Amino acid sequence: MTTEHEDASRFLSNEFYEIFPLSRSTLREGFSCGRPRIDNFFAKSALEKNDKNQVKVHVAELLENGQRTNRAIGFYSVCVRTIGCKKFKKRIQKIFQHYGGVPVVYLSMIGVTESFAGKGVGSYLLADALNRSLKVSKDVGIHGVALDAATSHLVDFYEKFGFELLENEEDERTMFISCAQIEDALAQAA
Predict the structure, then answer these.
(1) Selection from 69, 68, 67, 101 nearest residue 87 by Cα
(2) How many CA atoms lie within 13 A of 167 on its CB side?
(3) 172 phi and psi, to 5 degrees?
(4) Measured between alpha carbons, how far is 69 from 61 in angstroms, rounded to an integer?
(5) Is 148 exposed, middle or buried (0-12, 13-18, 19+ CB in 10 A)?
(6) Which is it for the CA torsion 141, 145, 146, 150, positive or negative?
(7) Tens of pLDDT, residues 151-163
(8) Domain boundaries, the chain
(9) Alpha-carbon Rg of the chain, whole angstroms?
(10) Backbone angles phi, psi at 20, to 5 degrees
(11) Is residue 93 within a helix (H) or strand (E), and if so which, with residue range?
């Protein structure tokens, strides 16, 4: 029987790729998800920012005969940040008003190579990010995971995972899912 705190990796099993921390051996050249900002970050500054602990980058790498190839087909980067209370519902505002904001794991970037787009890699990466965030929440005071959806199409994608739009300014698409919601989703998946 699965407990609510069990590692969610069994729900993410995959024989074609696996997620590893970004390293110097990760093959980043030629990575293209079709969004220049994301492609440039991964190619030019992800390793430096990761090494300086500004973000942590996790990479989906192809496996060949069960062995790591170092070929990146997708990645995500996360950091911790605070989101202003005014974006949240009154109940959450009241809890965090004296802290200057709501502490979250912030999913700052996620990208999948165009050749693997639409094949579940993005969902796999997002599920891994949520699982890791839930683990961190057991030791560090965070309330959930937040991100900024680049397009309205991505809003729809993230809503399928339980993310909700916050009270945003015009043209903002900040979304959030609480650790309690992540935990409930894992318990239901068991």
Answers:
(1) 101
(2) 9
(3) -100, 145
(4) 7
(5) middle
(6) positive
(7) 889 999 999 999 9
(8) 8-189
(9) 17
(10) -130, 155
(11) helix 90-96
Amino acid in position 56: K
In b/e form, how buried is each residue of 52-91, taking b as 16+ CB within 10 angstroms? eeebbbbbbbbeeeeeeeebbbbbbbbeeebbebebbeee
pLDDT, tens digit, 9 for 90 and up, residues 6-59: 344 443 456 789 999 999 999 998 899 999 999 999 999 999 999 999 999 999
CA distance 185 to 149: 21
Helix (H) or strand (E) holding 178: strand 174-178
- Residue labelled with tokens 């950091």: 79
Q: Which of 169, 157, 164, 134 is nearest to 4 (CA)?
A: 134
| pLDDT for the residue 173 | 94
Q: Which of 139, 137, 109 is nearest to 37 (CA)?
A: 109
Structure tokens given for 174: 């900040």
Model-level pTM?
0.87
Looking at the structure, give the CATH architecture of the domain made up of residues 8-189.
Answer: 3-Layer(aba) Sandwich (3.40)
Q: Looking at the chain, how many residues does it have?
A: 190
Can you tell me the distance from the alpha carbon of 116 to that of 112, in angstroms, rounded to the nearest whole number? Answer: 6
